[in-house]
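Provenance

Sequences were taken from public entries as deposited. Structures were produced by running a predictor on each sequence independently, with no templates supplied. The record for Transcriptional regulator, LysR-family from Corynebacterium glyciniphilum AJ 3170 is shown for reference.
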Amino acid sequence: MELQQLRYVLAVAETRNFTRAAERCHIVQSAMSHRIKALEHELGVQLFARTSRRVELTDAGAAFLPSAQASLDAADRAAADAAAATGRIRGTVTIGVIPTVTAIDVPAVLGRFHQAHPAVKIRLLGGSSDEFIAAIRSGGMDVAVLGLPAGQPPRGVRSQELVREDLVAVVSATHRLAGRDNIALADLDGEAFVDFPVDSPGRAQSDVAFRDAGLTRDVAFEAVDTSFMLEVVRQGLAVALLSRDAIPEDADVHILDVADGPSRIQYLAWSDFNPGPAATALVEMMTDAHHDLFTRR
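Predicted structure for Transcriptional regulator, LysR-family:
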């Protein structure tokens, strides 16, 4: 059994297609099929059920996959540790970033990181804070930038608080409140809202604030992209509660401070179980970048 065979199996399992898997692994399809068949013969089981149009994992293949992934991860870590011992860092680092991150200029940091460690492959994923925390705990992610309600710090991972911020109300230029700069949460009673999906950390702080104020609200629009949220606001369809720093200066909307409104904390989180050299270097660089950004403000 060879590591390359395991990589081929994982590629086919992810793509459910031998042609696309072969393209991903930069090998001709016939050679990949031959190598996987040889592995199946060695194991004495069929990993994939395949026809000319369809490829699926068998029960044996599904059972084989987690250990195959763990073996590849261990091999990659061994290579990274060996390189680190000579002063070089290599391997793969996976980072998750919420759509409303403002505490770190992530693209700029990744650019500097790539220049400093060109042998490290960077994987950048979008999603929600709870997904990232679970991924870090399971070993599927190295570093993440999170946004969580005050009083609900990430658990089961190492973390550093980056910034606390009060969310602002965002309304259209023609909204009834557009002539004001400061409001209370009760002033938004009866409004339709656009917010992140229900039960997501990005929405939790607003739900908590309304509940604590004894108010209910109608979230008529759900989205994961702030640019879409702002467009819904701009059209006069709803009100949003967002970080001020996440709103472009040319958004053509009106921003109001909310005296008793929601607040959130952004965190940098990473694995607390034997982080690799690449992850450690990225955490250090992101921490420094955050410090530099807020020192200039």
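The chain has two domains: 3-85, 93-297.
The longest strand covers residues 158-171.
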